[in-house]
Amino acid sequence: MQHISSTLAVPDSTYVPRHVAIIMDGNGRWATQRHLPRVAGHSRGLDAVRAVVEASAARGVQFLTLFAFSSENWRRPADEVSFLMRLFMTALRREVVKMHANSIRLRVVGDLGRFSPRIQQLIKDAEARTAGNTGMTVTIAANYGGRWDLLQAMRKMLARSPMLDPESIDESVLAPHLAMSYAPEPDLFIRTGGEQRISNFLLWQLAYSELYFTDVFWPDFDAAELDKAFASYRQRERRFGRTSAQLVAPGLSGTA
Ligand code: IPE
Ligand code: IPE
Ligand code: MG
Prior knowledge:
single chain, 256 residues, alpha/beta, 6-stranded parallel beta sheet, 41% helix, globular, binds 3-methylbut-3-enyl trihydrogen diphosphate, binds magnesium ion, UPP_synth-like_CS, UPP_synth-like_sf
């Protein structure tokens, strides 16, 4: 199914955001504050993932996207990277069973070729196992980068039609090749850990997302913190380029 593009038409705004995308940041600082090794923060971060998946599903979110490892995170010390890989494997083995029991569909997006064959196999198995589920879709962005996504989409687009007339390229030609074409654009973007940046997350899809930043470190983010983000979201006026007056009386002025 092709989803509405926020730049081509005005999407509906719902009380509960349909798609929530989260940069789970601050694990290392959470641990350092407690005089623990950084990786202890990553372990606790997985507990927070569990809590937020559960709370999101309970609130009626349809798509939850979690940035787990960026294309730039390979720059970290080798022992931290290998810890994260092991944690990813553990999560794929253990958490997927629970997600499947809760009818959650799991997807993993990113340049997966850089992961070990074992991880790649676990990802395939998890996606296949949960493919028929009809509950919330949880997407894990792993070795993901927004620029990578745009480039791989362009490559796929050209591979399909090498003689493509440049003038014929519009959103509807490119967007189906983006890694998350199965989901609507995020309504709400959340970043924990205090930094106010996108860090190469969903560059195309965040065009009209509401942005929410909190100082809370990811391991401390829970259902109550999610509710604060949702409360902030409900205060926003999503204009998508229009004026406030048009939102009050949509039929009276302008076009869609
Ligand atoms: C986010 O927490 C997790 C990953 C990037 C894998 P960080 O590890 O970036 O934590 P801080 O930002 O150093 O505190
Ligand atoms: C962004 O966090 C990526 C993930 C949470 C997976 P980083 O901690 O890597 O981002 P920067 O380096 O502070 O921008
Ligand atoms: Mg960080």
